[in-house]
Amino acid sequence: MGAMMKYDYWVVGAGITGMTVARVFAEQGKTVLVLDRRSHIGGNCHDEYDEYGIRVHKYGPHIFHTNSKEVWDFLGRFTEWRHYQHKVCAYVESMLLPIPINVDTINRLYDIAVTPATMAAYLASVSVKLDVVKNSRDAVIGRLGVDIYDKFFKNYTLKQWGIPAEEIHPSVCERIPIRFNRDSRYFSDQFQGIPLHGYQKMFERMAAHENIHLLLQADFKDVLGEVEYNGLVYTGPIDEYFNYRHGKLGYRSLRFVFTNYRQASFQEASVVNFPNDYEFTRTTEYRKITGQEAGSTTVSYEYPCNVGDPYYPIPTADNQNLYARYAEDAKKEGDVVFAGRLGSYRYLNMDAACLEGMRIARNLLNLHQNV
Ligand SMILES: Cc1cc2nc3c(=O)[nH]c(=O)nc-3n(C[C@H](O)[C@H](O)[C@H](O)COP(=O)(O)OP(=O)(O)OC[C@H]3O[C@@H](n4cnc5c(N)ncnc54)[C@H](O)[C@@H]3O)c2cc1C
Asked: Of the chain's two ends, which shows fewer C-beta atoms within 10 Å, N or C?
């Protein structure tokens, strides 16, 4: 690469975290180098047109949802929104039942007549009373009972994580929402949608600033030493940064198989979960999310696996302890801020990543202003 590249800030990773950080810096008059090892910006939110002309989400379905007006407005400067409300069904006992579990899920599964007024009492009658919630199975049976756990969660969790729910921290399944009404939307946030012209267009507009310089298909370690900067925001894997000196953090990966069907519609909902059948966990029909009109439809089949890109931090005590050691090292790294889902070894929704990006950029700007 030759001559030294000079920027006010260096951002490693062009996902939603890195792009947000870069945009905030750029708008404050700072020059920024954004580097990504992939050939595209947008990180895991990236979408593209497949060979059949259907817009698909390359790294799995991404639905934007937030209660933060600040985030919604910030991203809204770079895209119009398609006001889409996500729906998911689970294929259980040959039926497609609404997820999250709501009054209709229960009534159709058991052919009974629970109402929003009686749902809480019904769940109290089937749930298991536990003094201590030790793991994710407990977290489900304590709220929904054993039968619902067995039908919706037991095998899905095993497929998703490769380990039984009994070995997974309760917090994973404690987060699963339950609806005490007939609301069949997957998310209940105030703002929900999909960038009208796709995530890729949204990120291209974020990157289109004279102070932002993109460098793609370049790895951090290969460029290190060739960049001069005042601050570095690193959104890659924290263990990789430290050359895995304490060992590798556990990640669950996903393999996506995309198939195009020459038919108008493939399935009832945008996403169908298969807790008990097949090796894949879910199928996604992208046109149902994007609203694209076309003569065929593309579906992805999602196979969880242990090899491949890091997707979900595996929520075990060992991994948390290992991460704590890297987090200690990170504190000693001076001008480096570790951010995003890989830099902080956390599952982050897009809105949380964006909010964190804004906060980190503003903090660094303040810090450097006062030096
Ligand atoms: C299957 C799936 C579905 C999801 N669905 C939703 C959803 O519906 N709604 C929602 O809000 N969130 C969803 N998410 C979460 C969403 O993907 C994250 O919030 C988002 O990707 C976080 O962005 P990020 O910038 O932190 O990380 P990333 O998007 O992973 O970006 C990090 C970037 O850093 C680059 N990088 C890493 N290391 C290096 C290096 N050494 N050198 C150069 N570049 C490097 C990577 O190539 C990557 O592009 C989903 C996640 C998954 C896995």
From this structure: C
